[in-house]
Amino acid sequence: MDSQTLQRVTSDLMPLNSIDGIDAVLVFGSQVTGDATELSDIDICVVAPEVRTLSEQASLMEKIWGCINTDVYDVRLFEALPLSVQASVIDQHVAVMCRDLPGLFEYFYRFRREWEDVRGRQATAR
Predict the structure, then answer these.
(1) In 3D, which of 39, 42, 18 has the Cα closest to residue 29?
(2) Residue (of 7, 6, 93) closest to 46 by Cα position
(3) Among 12, 94, 114, 126, fewest CB within 10 Å belongs to which?
(4) How high is the mean pLDDT of the chain?
């Protein structure tokens, strides 16, 4: 992700700093891997560990969608993603906002371990 795009994304997503429950905002997907085209949207992953119920998740997403341009940004909650996508986000992301970086990596540790266990079982089953 080039610095100009990162600067624009950081500026566009600044309003998310004021939403309670969001621990981190990450860019992932084609913008980070370098596979983006002019038609690509920007994949955003919001990490919100304390937002647990579907009702809380829906409420948070409404607040997020009210703050950003949904034609440009495709926002997902980390906790609602499939484990394989969570692992991909953990491996390849750019943080545009993070309240506690060491805490974020500590939080990710559980998901990384779970993914490694699943991959190990899949390899054994083959």
Answers:
(1) 42
(2) 93
(3) 126
(4) 93
**Structure tokens, 69:** 């341009």
Residue 70 pLDDT greater than 80, yes or no: yes
Cα–Cα distance between 51 and 57 in angstroms, integer? 6
Out of 3.40.50.2000, 3.30.930.10, 3.30.460.10, 2.60.120.10, the CATH code matching 3-125 is: 3.30.460.10
Q: How far is CA 50 from CA 21, 24, 80, in A?
A: 6, 12, 12
Q: pLDDT by residue (tens digit) across 34-58? A: 998 888 899 999 999 999 899 999 9
Neighbours of 100 (CB within 10 A): 11
The identity of residue 100, as a single letter, is D
Q: For residue range 76-101, list pLDDT tens digits in order.
A: 999 999 999 999 999 999 999 999 99
Supply the pTM of this predicted model.
0.89
Q: Walk across the sheet containing 24-28 and list its strands.
A: 73-77, 42-47, 24-28, 94-98
